[in-house]
């Protein structure tokens, strides 16, 4: 396969509120392209925020920009790391503690590219995609959480 002329296949989606991530679908998407490595990442809602228990996170998003930016981020990272395929799903609406809020799967010819691309993808997603989270729990009452590394208020 002449990778210099092939564009990676990508799949990127923001799921409607209440729709769960199906990791096996993303895993299947990235397989079967002659890969030597598949790397996945699941971002799980933690039970504590600033040391206090929470019920979950409410993900808000910019309706017209978020999915377009997510697709751009996935496409850019896939091209930069010469991936074969890349998939990313991010939930919106309420996500309970212990559930995945984001899932990424990438495939590449070699493991180093796959690991680096997966890490870059979550970093760039948090920086560029207009999604932010509102902490839900007794001690927070709708506290909007801004992560220091994130310019998009994710």
UniProtKB/TrEMBL annotation:
A biological process from GO: Mo-molybdopterin cofactor biosynthetic process
InterPro entries xref list: MoaE_sf, Mopterin_biosynth_MoaE
Name by which UniProt lists this protein: Molybdenum cofactor biosynthesis protein MoaE
Source species: Sumerlaea chitinivorans
């Amino acid at each position: 396969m002449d990778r210099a002329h092939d564009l990676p296949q990508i799949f990127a989606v923001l799921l409607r509120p209440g729709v769960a991530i199906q990791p096996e679908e993303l895993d299947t998407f990235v397989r079967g392209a002659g890969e030597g490595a598949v790397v996945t990442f699941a971002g799980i809602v933690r039970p504590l925020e600033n040391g206090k228990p929470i019920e979950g996170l409410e993900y808000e998003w910019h309706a017209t920009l978020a999915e377009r930016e997510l697709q751009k981020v996935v496409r850019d990272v896939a091209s930069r790391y010469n991936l074969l395929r890349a998939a990313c799903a991010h939930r919106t609406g309420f996500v309970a503690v212990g559930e995945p809020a984001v899932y990424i799967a990438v495939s590449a010819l070699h493991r180093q590219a796959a690991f680096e691309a997966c890490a870059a993808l979550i970093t760039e997603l948090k920086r560029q995609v207009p999604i932010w989270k509102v902490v839900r729990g007794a001690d927070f009452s709708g506290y909007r959480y801004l992560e220091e590394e994130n310019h998009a208020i994710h």
